[in-house]
Amino acid sequence: MSNVSNSNIPEKTIERLSEYRRSLLSCHKQGITHIFSHVLAGMHGITAVQVRRDLMLIGFSSDTKKGYDVKVLIEFINNILDSESVMNIAVIGMGHLGQAITKYFNSKGLKLRIVTAFDIDPQKVGTTIDDIPCYHMNQFEEVVSSMDISIVVISSPTRVAPTLVVPIINAGIKGVLNFTSAPLHFPPGIVSENYDITTILEKVAYFVKERDENNNKN
Amino acid sequence: MSNVSNSNIPEKTIERLSEYRRSLLSCHKQGITHIFSHVLAGMHGITAVQVRRDLMLIGFSSDTKKGYDVKVLIEFINNILDSESVMNIAVIGMGHLGQAITKYFNSKGLKLRIVTAFDIDPQKVGTTIDDIPCYHMNQFEEVVSSMDISIVVISSPTRVAPTLVVPIINAGIKGVLNFTSAPLHFPPGIVSENYDITTILEKVAYFVKERDENNNKN
């Protein structure tokens, strides 16, 4: 699904660090100061060994009798995951999915911010949706440069997606998260993830069917 | 991220079969009758060896000099992935994300159909959104039973998600696809996937940052 690879830290560990951080932030909010690896593991349905291995990989080892210091661990993960500067993101396609993603992200106070959107719908272009301005796709290159956008999220209709590849490359975008059903390929310099929701729902349905069939056999 | 496992076919292969099928359907629409493994591979940014291995795993081997017969291969994948009967899906949380998912799915003519939604917003309950009826969550068990729902998609606010676990178990749901940031855990009899969009965007951002740092070093 992805062409990210080639960091010292495996992709799956990066995903889990992002997930641990969200749980740790929620613990921190509730006034919890320490957490054991097996408790953190339980929150994510994995083993304590996996949690300890992930944290060892990033060089975190301050496990005490009380467990990990929640605040220190959050800071530690911040240093791994976050860029020193805020990274600006643009959404291409401001339909329901684009708007859902924008709301979701910008309410979280992350270092990642969706700062602008692109669409071709005259009802949307020139307006502000959830506090972010919506531009026409024919201004893409210019706006990406002036707003210092490094990542785009593609939530356009699937048929439009292939036409976005060249503008994205030309504008110097560094990362792409593609939610359409059209798998897109970019040159090695661009980090990209194809993330089709249909695939995951079909997978869940498949394993539901498999269980049903196995149960009927027994 | 998931607790599906334990089928003869690996999860990743199931995901790729779903992706191959979408590409094959698109080829079929364009009148393409045959496709070589390396062409199919190229469409998904993977190797031909991977494609052949996946198809071997499901027992498909009718590779000819002209490549795979597109229509036959689609049928073959249908037999693996699809249930004989239509599987009914409900969406819990009919905000932007819920509506995006519903529109997206039901326009695709899949065997999976979103047939109903649940919310607690009085503006939504009792109405029809994109042709599907929206019920109040307090009717959940009753509607799941009368409409024969086997899978739910959770697109509620994250803070609500943990309160849904017990109703889902009680209603006899068999599969859960959770899009919120709260990882949910279900008993082994229920197939579940936690699929948090934030994680993937943070991962893309991380690898963009890594590349930048490596480029600066060189």
Along the chain, the helix and strand elements of chain A come as HEHHEHEHEEEHEHEEH
Q: What is the number of helices of chain A?
A: 8
In the sheet with the most strands of chain A, the strands line up as: 5-6-4-3-7-8-9
Low-pLDDT sequence parts of chain A:
1-6
Strand element count of chain A: 9
Distance between the termini of chain A: 35 Å
Derived structural class of chain A: alpha/beta
Rg of chain A (CA only):
20 Å
Set down the secondary structure blueprint.
The structure is a homodimer of 218-residue chains.
Chain A: H1 11-29, E1 34-35, H2 37-43, H3 48-57, E2 68-69, H4 70-81, E3 87-92, H5 96-106, E4 112-119, E5 128-129, E6 132-136, H6 140-146, E7 149-154, H7 165-170, E8 175-178, E9 191-194, H8 197-217
Parallel strand pairs in A: 3-4, 3-7, 4-6, 7-8, 8-9
Antiparallel strand pairs in A: 1-2, 5-6
Explain this structure.
With 218 residues, chain A is an alpha/beta fold. The first copy, chain A, contains eight helices and nine strands. Chain A has helices at residues 11-29, 37-43, 48-57, 70-81, 96-106, 140-146, 165-170, 197-217; strands at residues 34-35, 68-69, 87-92, 112-119, 128-129, 132-136, 149-154, 175-178, 191-194. In chain A, the strands form two sheets. A seven-stranded mixed sheet of chain A has the order 5-6-4-3-7-8-9, sandwiched between helices. A two-stranded antiparallel sheet of chain A has the order 1-2. In chain A, a hairpin with a 2-residue loop joins strand 5 (128-129) and strand 6 (132-136). In chain A, helix 1 (11-29) runs antiparallel to helix 4 (70-81). Chains A and B meet through helix 1, helix 5, strand 7, strand 8 and strand 9 of A and helix 1, helix 5, strand 7, strand 8 and strand 9 of B.
